[in-house]
From TrEMBL:
EC number per UniProt: 4.1.3.4
Cited CDD domains: DRE_TIM_HMGL
GO terms (BP aspect): ketone body biosynthetic process; L-leucine catabolic process
Record's protein name: hydroxymethylglutaryl-CoA lyase
GO MF entry, a single one: hydroxymethylglutaryl-CoA lyase activity
Keyword Protease: no
InterPro entries noted in UniProt: Aldolase_TIM, HMG_CoA_lyase_AS, HMGL, PYR_CT
A family per Pfam: HMGL-like
Pathway of action: Metabolic intermediate metabolism; (S)-3-hydroxy-3-methylglutaryl-CoA degradation; acetoacetate from (S)-3-hydroxy-3-methylglutaryl-CoA: step 1/1
């Protein structure tokens, strides 16, 4: 069994986590969350999203958040940019890395962004050209890689096709997302095996929601397949507005506990991470979604 010596966690809580909250969240609270996560040792934080506030109201003010956070050397502060307009706004905010997203399911693509998979990929072409011109790195997301709320099962070959397009387009890394959290360890390994035929595994990442309680099992399965980058959300914040019942991305605290138990280095301080998650949960007035955080807090 060959496990990686180190793993990079991509913290998506400030974006993927908060965008699904119904109550308004102040710029100051968002800034505090990002700074807390930086202080906990996260080396990659997805801070916000440059999308229309009409569609994702919680991401309004992302430029103000980027202007106020205490950026630290060696930490990547990224943003989601669905189109060229979003990319240009991110550039003005001095964002150093952006992400684009496509779906492995036609039905989900239509429900989520009102266009086909092919149309969504075509929209990225001017963005990718602008990113290359400005030397901004682009990360790609593929959603619904292990199931779709509308189409049901998703063929790994379709996942590979979309991931291949993003990689060929210039995305330096492609994150494979189990958006509705229905995947199992066996599904995960089969999907990675197929996608890994076209894209080097060191250029792939895992993004697992925990709806069915399988996220950690899927991460372990991914580790066995040579994946060493995983997206996670502090306190398990998030969900998917287009996938009824889907819970948030797997909690960063829970992933960290798994990795620590395997002797895998992340450079993250568990106590500071738990404090960051608990603080934002208190702001939101909701229970902490991390099992590890709840257990540690209860035993203090």
């Amino acid at each position: 069994m060959n496990l990686p010596h180190s793993v990079r966690l991509v913290e998506v809580g400030p974006r993927d986590g908060l965008q699904n909250e119904k109550q308004p969240i102040s710029v100051a609270d968002k800034v505090r969350l990002v700074d807390d996560l930086t202080g906990a040792g996260l080396s990659y934080i997805e801070v916000g999203s440059f999308v229309s506030p009409k569609w994702v109201p919680q991401m309004a003010g992302s430029a103000e958040v980027f202007a106020a956070i205490q950026r630290q050397p060696g930490v990547t502060y990224a943003a989601l940019t669905p189109n060229l307009k979003g990319f240009e706004a991110a550039l003005e905010a001095k964002v150093e890395e952006v992400a684009v997203f496509a779906a492995a399911s036609e039905a989900f693509s239509q429900k989520n962004i009102n266009c086909s998979i092919a149309e969504s990929l075509a929209r990225f072409e001017p963005l990718m050209a602008a990113a290359k011109a400005h030397k901004v790195r682009v990360r790609g997301y593929v959603s619904c890689v292990l199931g779709c709320p509308y189409d049901g099962e998703v063929n790994p070959a379709q996942v590979a096709s979309v991931a291949r397009e993003l990689y060929a387009m210039g995305c330096y890394e492609v994150s494979l997302g189990d958006t509705i959290g229905t995947g199992t360890a066996g599904d995960t390994r089969r999907m990675i095996e197929v996608v890994g035929r076209d894209i080097p595994r060191e250029r792939l990442a895992g993004h697992f929601h925990d709806t069915y309680g399988q996220a950690l099992a899927n991460i372990y399965a991914s580790l066995l397949e040579g994946i060493n980058v995983f997206d996670s959300s502090v306190a398990g914040l998030g969900g998917c507005p287009y996938a009824k019942g889907a819970t948030g991305n797997v909690a960063t605290e829970d992933v960290l506990y798994l990795l620590q138990g395997l002797g895998i280095d992340t450079g993250i301080d568990m106590d500071k991470l738990i404090a960051a998650g608990q603080r934002i949960c208190e702001v939101l007035g909701k229970a902490n979604g991390s099992r590890v955080a709840r257990a540690r807090i209860a035993n203090r």
